[in-house]
Design a protein that fits this description.
With 319 residues, the protein is α/β, with parallel strands linked by helices. 38% of the residues lie in helices and 22% in strands. The mean pLDDT is 94.
Length: 319
């Protein structure tokens, strides 16, 4: 009897990527091992988002070069993880997807790639990997994280019907659980604007106030040293208070969306780098909890949630 193809999840981000092998048992998915992590070292500087949105599809030479090299590295990495076995692959990434869901047409923190999945398929074949079936859709990283946290064996949103997943690293991703089903914000009816689409003051977006990577950039650009979380000066305090307030805005609007439909926001999970930072700051976390009313607020240490969620999304699409 032929062995079942291996499932691999790939989480592509602005600062790097993660991949893991996954298995399904007794109705839930789990990672077979902690995710392997890869950090980009190409010093890529993204085109300003306003320009990307104004001139869709007009990629720069630097985007083409860096995007091609990253695809090659991802293909080699995933093929190596498969260790000679045939495999199915689920992929998630940030940014605005192309209409066919095969590429990224706008991305604040990385090189756009309009034909990303097809290029990845070809590169995997060139690297000697045996991919089972074509890659059908690129999953939003926000949705993938929520799927991993709600349906993964170690997820922070298991057994929750109505919840909010806020993942933060280079950017911010949000997804809602509504009656047990996961939705990216633009899939809701009516849709909710994403953090990068909301004004955050001083000419920036709400994502600038909340995303750990954006907060760190603001801190370093202002002349700060180390990380603002470890400093007690007024400038650091302003950044951290703005981050707390921005999170409460994101939480409250999701609560209001659910409330308008007669549903209660049961639990909020802060995930990825955002979750790890708040887990190390119990006083800040407790202050956030006091602003969440009856909603439970927890942090997640599950780094592989988006990669696992990418597998879940691909498996459900296949079925």
């Amino acid at each position: 009897m032929e062995a079942e193809p291996l499932w691999i999840g790939l989480d592509v981000g602005g600062s790097g990527a993660r991949a893991l092998t996954a298995e399904r048992a007794e109705g839930s998915w789990s990672a077979q091992a902690p995710p392997l992590e890869f950090v980009w070292d190409d010093d890529f500087c993204p085109v300003p988002l306003r320009e990307q949105l104004a001139y869709p599809g007009e990629l720069t030479a630097l985007e083409e070069v860096c995007g091609s090299e990253r695809v090659r590295l991802l293909a080699e990495w995933v093929s190596s993880l498969a260790s000679g076995r045939s495999f199915r692959l689920g992929v998630c990434a940030p940014g605005l997807k192309t209409s066919d869901r095969l590429g990224i047409q706008a991305w604040r923190n990385g090189p756009r790639r309009l034909t990303f999945l097809r290029d990845l398929e070809r590169s995997i074949k060139g690297a000697g990997g045996e991919l089972v079936g074509p890659l059908a859709s690129l999953c939003p990283d926000s949705l993938a994280c929520a799927l991993g946290e709600s349906r993964g064996g170690e997820g922070a949103l298991r057994d929750v019907s109505n919840g909010l997943c806020i993942s933060g690293g280079s950017g911010v991703g949000e997804a809602l659980l509504v009656d047990g089903s996961c939705f990216a914000l633009d899939e809701l009816e009516p849709p909710l604007p994403r953090a990068w689409e909301l004004a955050g003051g001083d000419g920036g977006s709400l994502e600038d106030r909340v995303a750990p990577g954006r907060v760190m950039s603001s801190w370093l650009n202002s002349g700060g040293a180390g990380a603002p979380e470890g400093c007690e000066g007024e400038a650091a305090l302003r950044l951290l208070e703005a981050q707390d307030a921005g999170l409460l805005i994101l939480i409250e609007r999701s609560r209001a969306w659910l409330c308008a439909r007669g549903l209660e926001l049961e639990r909020v999970a802060l995930c990825q780098t955002l979750g790890r930072l708040y887990a190390k700051a119990p006083e800040r976390l407790e202050a956030l909890r006091s602003g969440c009313g009856s909603s439970e607020l927890i942090t997640s240490e599950f780094r592989g949630a988006p990669a696992l969620g990418a597998v879940i999304a691909a498996a459900e699409l296949k079925s």
